[in-house]
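From the shared-data thread, chain only:
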Amino acid sequence: MPIELDADALVAMLPSGGRTLVSGCSAESLLLADAVERAGDGLGRIIFTGIFVPGLNRRTYLANPSCVTETFFLTPELKAAGQAVTFLPLCYADIRQRLLNDPPDAALMMVSPPDEEGMCSFGSTVDFLAELWPRIPVRLAHINPLMPRTKGQAQIPLAEITAMVEAPQALLGTPDSGSDAVADAIAGHIAPLIADGATLQTGLGKVPGAVFRALTGRRNLRVHSGLIGDAVVDLEEAGALAPGVAVTAGVAIGSERLYQAIGRPTYRFAPVSVTHDAATIGAIPDFIAINSATEVDLFGQAYAEVGPKGFMSGPGGATDFARGAKVAGGLRIVALSATAAKGAISRIVAPNAGAGPVSLGRMDVDIVVTEFGLADLRGGTHSERAAALVAIAAPDHRDRLTGEWRSFFDKL
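Structure, as tokens:
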């Protein structure tokens, strides 16, 4: 059985000179994060690694000048920390492989109390730990009575935990972002593409939420996604989901309404080796991946990693789901609003003019959707694809984009 300690004594067990995998997303333990910061120089050099979501996970884990944090999403707090942070722009399949090739020396995790069989649930955040924990020698757990017990590959025996502290903490979350006219218009173009019985992958935000709300009249839908939010509960409550296990996910981020739901039999939580696996996704019929972008250029390349203040993310799971959808013979949709800055900036841009690296290549995108319509890029010539994209740009930008395409193409 694990040793029961207070948070400071627990954190003092972290092996100096090693790497520690941190439960992030909605299962970040603020109790342990604060203990890390209090430990200061006593920790020595530790590399902390994990999934830290902008706007949700605000701790840096930089207890002293020799500590380093590896991250795959660049939160404002980590960005401000400068050279003490290593930003790794990897897709989820590559993050998993990196962790398998070089397993961490320790883990800071949040889990539920054990059930009658002595099993603790990883609850709302399974991602990598459910697969990796047997390879990690030092397993330090925050046992949280408020963590919902989820079904699937989301458990660790209490007896396999090295040391623990038990205390309640509300899960980190975000309120349902609701919708607006632009998101509703985008959802209105996407919804007709989705038939009864389809399996959907989305992220968080207004557009995914609006899409799910537009589908409450469908039946026998399923969700297979790395991440789910409150809108999946709308589908469940409307009777739109298939009977039995209809939702497979790795992480839930949302409101208390979502966290109350995910323990129900409808939901199954699985690690990245399942949720993002191309072969697994490839075996799912009628699979539809819906992802967002900050810009799409006239070649159909999607950009999603750089915002007005610089890098904010790596490619995340979008490439994994695009790859799986291709194997499945499914559909890969990229959704975005047509403009930014109150219409002054077009988010449909000239060829190769997007900010940052290409997140989804032109062969990874089937359909692009804005509030002005959808551009089906499948089977088109370069010029046909560009024309389709110009047609869903904001009207005030279409003439300029047409001229930029002609100027670019004439040089080829």
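The two ends are 68 Å apart (CA to CA).
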